[in-house]
Amino acid sequence: MTISISEIFNFNSAHRLYNKNWDISKNLIEFGKCSFPNYHGHNYKLEVKLSGKVDINLGNTISRNKICDIVNKEIIQHLDHKNLNIEIPQFSNLIPTVENIAIVIWDILNKIFENKYNLEVKLYETERNFVVYKG
Amino acid sequence: MTISISEIFNFNSAHRLYNKNWDISKNLIEFGKCSFPNYHGHNYKLEVKLSGKVDINLGNTISRNKICDIVNKEIIQHLDHKNLNIEIPQFSNLIPTVENIAIVIWDILNKIFENKYNLEVKLYETERNFVVYKG
Amino acid sequence: MTISISEIFNFNSAHRLYNKNWDISKNLIEFGKCSFPNYHGHNYKLEVKLSGKVDINLGNTISRNKICDIVNKEIIQHLDHKNLNIEIPQFSNLIPTVENIAIVIWDILNKIFENKYNLEVKLYETERNFVVYKG
Amino acid sequence: MTISISEIFNFNSAHRLYNKNWDISKNLIEFGKCSFPNYHGHNYKLEVKLSGKVDINLGNTISRNKICDIVNKEIIQHLDHKNLNIEIPQFSNLIPTVENIAIVIWDILNKIFENKYNLEVKLYETERNFVVYKG
Amino acid sequence: MTISISEIFNFNSAHRLYNKNWDISKNLIEFGKCSFPNYHGHNYKLEVKLSGKVDINLGNTISRNKICDIVNKEIIQHLDHKNLNIEIPQFSNLIPTVENIAIVIWDILNKIFENKYNLEVKLYETERNFVVYKG
Amino acid sequence: MTISISEIFNFNSAHRLYNKNWDISKNLIEFGKCSFPNYHGHNYKLEVKLSGKVDINLGNTISRNKICDIVNKEIIQHLDHKNLNIEIPQFSNLIPTVENIAIVIWDILNKIFENKYNLEVKLYETERNFVVYKG
Question: CB distance from E90 to chain F under 8 Å?
């Protein structure tokens, strides 16, 4: 019998939604104000969920410290206070929608957790919209 | 590999829980103060979740604008600032519990989304209780 | 030196905004959908704030139990799961706006607290609007 | 077609994370400040989710009152304002991590609900971490 | 006797904290990661509070619609999905800290409300920090 | 013209409400389950508010880093994951009610801030009750 544990993180980044293969007016039609040229930004809220059996000696599946160390080092330091379009290699040819950001985060973390723990990522872009991705 | 996207909406409605086939005292036993005759109301909070593959050109499964346009037109305008028992045809013979409201919302939206997107509806009646329905 | 203590309460009521001296179209202009004839409703959230010196034997100004007993008896039982326009005498000639509801609550509580404690009432109608009243 | 209904509860307890088979320094390495000897505490937030078909006469799967009565009697009175390590028999030989508390709660409730309703328990220890358990 | 009414708004903007009279390393010492060159961003949450006497015919001090129309037109359209440093004239020579953004908002709104209503602005930059300004 | 800035912190502690000059039954009457002998605990949420003029070079009154360094060192490290009754000298003869905890925090911080900044402390014990103290 498995249990899932979730830890919550925050990062603050700038981005814009823009498809390089389209001109400005096509981008404006598809993405509206999210395509504005000088970027806007969000307080992203990230829930990282891991599942597994509870270790009887520790009372947990994986220690909270280990999760936080990994996510802070690999995700928060990577994305926080950054411009996702300009500074993050994963978005050099990928539009940084909340969907794609969640997939990028999942890909990074799942390699480190080595496909164990049935990783799931929930990412809020605002208080009004979020995505869930589990590979 | 699919991702789910959720958009959050609010509407404020009046209702009462009352089974027309029962007398007042039986209704009071089953529904308590929720059966009071002159209605009470809630700030309903609705999460609409859709799942699918990410379109590579748009970075999303379905645009946020399209979801919002449909939900605002078909659900929010239909239920907001209304008396669910009196004004909403779906509740003429159906008790407007939070369960039944969620099912009515799901039925309306799933027809419009044409059974695509694996639609799921989460509906909060108060900060202390909610339901989840996916057909 | 004084300290303030706040306790938070909830009640769910139906209401409509309607001035009896005006016709329907004038009400619609002034109050919009809030004037719809069959009522809508809200999850009201109430913060009751009292201020005073800390009693050295109890470590408080007034006990939480005393505040809760009074507010539950005088306010929550009075307003919860009621139709404010129809059932609450204070609104027989007063429009139950969030402003007037807060003033009615303050008037009831301040009589009971006998003008002590510098009573302040904060009332949320939705997560997006609230009022503060202190007499 | 089934629907899930969730009710939310709170309890405030003291605990420490401590494995009796290890010395203090090993506990400190594994659990950090959570192993401090004189206990700390949390405002636990509990979501109890039950699933089933909607009864056509009642408009629900199980009444909110019945859920609240059971959870308040069997869980909240059992754990609220208690020291989990000292006072709760289930933790006499089990470390009261948020994972184990959720499993204990699930085991108690699932017996009472007699394996019906596909019980799921979500337990927040803080606003930043929670677990989900469904047996 | 006056009452205050508050309306809540959101906008999402990019910014960086950078004093043009200092070099990069001095900016980094003073502002840390907030000075990073390519901008980051926030979901700003704005509470606009107005105080006054309650009009007996309307039951309010000023209509919610009027407040929302003004704030949406003058503030949200002005700042939402914008780069505060590049696109907002008020910040051409003013560092867009949360303090200065609140002051700019207050100055714009107070002119429109013509010094009536004892205007107060509360601005959250994240869930962990906010400012309050009342002129 | 001054502005206030608030930073939010959390700490998790155990406590009980118990007056040493009273017997157990008198304590039980006054404090209820909060007087239970083996302690319970809370996720305390602390808002530290400081007011002052905005420095034109920095765009703030006092840097967020300085506030966080002081509060983390002097308050969070002092109270977090501790038993307030047993381990905190300030409560050796003072009942650790939320009122008294707020006063103790204010006294510590106000000495460090040297009576500048018009310090105000808001302390939540649960999501349902909080105090505000400004000396």
Answer: no
Q: Is the pLDDT of residue A1 over 90?
A: no
Check: CB of residue D76 under 8 Å from CB of residue D28. Answer: no
For F102-117, the pLDDT digits (tens) are: 999 999 999 999 989 9
ipTM: 0.95
Cα dihedral across residues E107, E113, E117, E120: positive or negative: negative
**What percentage of chain C exceeds 70 in pLDDT?**
100
The residue segments making up the domain with residue A125 are: 2-133
Amino acid C1: pLDDT: 86
Strands (E), F26-127: 40-52, 120-126
Contact E12 A82 (CB under 8 A): no
Residues in chain E within 8 Å Cβ distance of A36: 81-82
Chain B to chain C, count of Cβ pairs less than 8 Å apart? 73
Residue A12's DSSP bridge partners are A43
Q: Is E53 on the interface with C (CB under 8 A)?
A: no
Is residue E81 flagged as an active site residue?
Answer: yes
| CATH number where A51 lies | 3.30.479.10
Looking at the complex, does the CB of residue A42 fall below 8 Å from at least one CB of chain E?
Answer: yes
Count: domains in chain F: 1
Query: From the CB coordinates, do chains E and F have 3 or more pairs under 8 Å?
Result: yes
In a structure prediction context, what are the per-residue pLDDT tens digits for chain E, which is 135 residues long?
A: 899 999 999 999 999 999 999 999 999 999 999 999 999 999 999 999 999 999 999 999 999 999 999 999 999 999 999 999 999 999 999 999 999 999 999 999 999 999 899 999 999 999 999 999 999
What is the tens place of the pLDDT at every residue in E87-103?
Answer: 999 999 999 999 999 99
Residue B34 annotated among the catalytic residues of the structure? yes
Minimum distance, in Å, between the CA of residue A77 and any CA atom of chain B: 24
Asked if E10 lies within 8 A of A126 by C-beta distance, the reply is yes
Stated pTM of the model: 0.97
Residue C21, SS3 per DSSP? coil
User: A128 — contact with chain B (CB < 8 Å)?
Assistant: yes
Predicted local confidence at residue D1, as pLDDT: 86
Q: Say whether B40 and C15 touch across the interface (CB within 8 A).
A: no
Chain A: residue whose CA lies nearest to E32 = A81
Cβ contact A132–B4 (<8 Å): yes
Give the rounded percent of residues in chain A with a pLDDT score beyond 90: 99
Q: Give the active site residue among E30, E34, E42, E74.
A: E34
Give the helix/strand (H/E) hosting E94. Answer: none
CA–CA gap between residue E131 and residue E121 (Å, rounded): 8
pLDDT at E1 (0 to 100): 86
- The closest CB to that of A100, out of B4, B54, B65, belongs to B54
**Among positive and negative, which fits the CA dihedral E22, E25, E26, E29?**
positive
Query: CA dist C39 to B18, C33, C74, Å?
Result: 17, 10, 24
CA of C47: how far to CAs of C3, C5, C51, in Å? 16, 10, 13
